[in-house]
């Protein structure tokens, strides 16, 4: 059994991991045509903080961002520059057009840290003839559904019928081990409709895309 994820290892501390994720957000190109007051990276950083802090909703986070202490904490903990947290509307406007592939990098970086520190060894699964395998349960989930709003990449349900609807699903997977309390999530992959087909497919195999090389 290899090493588990131990918090005493500096690179496994929340501070280091959050900093790693923040640095990945800094590298996502700003698609806005004009120079804006709020730096672009503040948008994904704020969204990440909202999810990490398990806020009840985007609206609840939006109300909290007006609190000076909250802004200070977001600056210190999540590297939101100058505590400038965008409103929920601006967050949607700025983040919606961003290519989601840029958000896969943090998953790779975090898994690299686990691998570099030898902790991935603790996830090797041996059972009977199976040796040096990893367990990777995968599951699909829905993240958008609408009877009216759609984008070009939307999957379509009941196409051509009165109740036509649009949706997005993703496939997610985590490396797990029965003896480990921690799970290692890999970047989710969009389940999308290929051009000219009605069949839903996962674009690429999770391991092909996200395994650290
Ligand atoms: Zn869509």
Describe what this molecule looks like in 3D:
- The protein is 31% helix and 20% strand.
- The chain is α+β, with helices and mostly antiparallel strands.
- Among the domains are: 29-97, no CATH class; 132-210, no CATH class.
- Strands 3, 4, 5, 6, 7 and 8 form a six-stranded antiparallel sheet that branches. Strands 1-2 form a two-stranded antiparallel sheet.
- A hairpin with a 7-residue loop joins strand 4 and strand 5 (165-175).
- The chain is flat.
- It starts with 13 loop residues before the first helix and ends with a helix.
- Residues 201-213 have low confidence and may be disordered.
- The chain binds zinc ion.
- Residues 150-151, 153-154, 166, 168 line the site of zinc ion (ZN).
What is this structure's SSE topology?
Layout: H1 14-26, H2 42-52, H3 58-64, H4 68-78, H5 88-95, H6 105-116, E1 124-127, E2 130-134, E3 138-146, E4 155-157, E5 165-175, E6 184-185, E7 189-193, E8 200-202, H7 206-210
Antiparallel strand pairs: 1-2, 3-5, 4-5, 5-6, 5-7, 7-8
Helix pairs in contact: 1-6
The structure holds zinc ion.
Zinc ion binds next to strand 5.
């Amino acid at each position: 059994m290899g090493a588990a994820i131990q918090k005493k290892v500096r690179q496994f501390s929340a501070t280091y991991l959050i900093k790693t994720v923040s640095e990945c957000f800094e590298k996502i190109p700003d698609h806005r045509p004009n120079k804006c007051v709020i730096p672009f990276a503040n948008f994904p950083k704020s969204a990440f903080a909202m999810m990490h802090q398990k806020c009840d909703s985007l609206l609840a986070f939006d109300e909290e961002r007006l609190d000076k202490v909250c802004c200070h904490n977001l600056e210190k903990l999540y590297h939101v520059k100058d505590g400038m947290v965008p409103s929920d509307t601006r967050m949607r406007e700025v983040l919606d057009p961003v290519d989601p592939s840029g958000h896969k990098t943090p998953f790779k970086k975090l898994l690299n840290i686990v691998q570099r520190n030898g902790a991935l060894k603790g996830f090797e699964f041996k059972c009977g003839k199976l040796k040096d395998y990893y367990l990777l349960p995968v599951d699909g989930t829905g993240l958008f559904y609408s009877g009216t709003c759609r984008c070009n990449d939307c999957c379509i349900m009941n196409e051509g019928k009165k109740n036509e609807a649009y949706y997005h699903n993703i496939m997610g997977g985590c490396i797990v081990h029965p003896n480990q309390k921690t799970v290692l999530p890999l970047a989710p992959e969009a389940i999308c409709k290929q051009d000219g087909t009605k069949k839903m497919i996962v674009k690429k195999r999770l391991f092909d895309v996200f395994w650290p090389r």
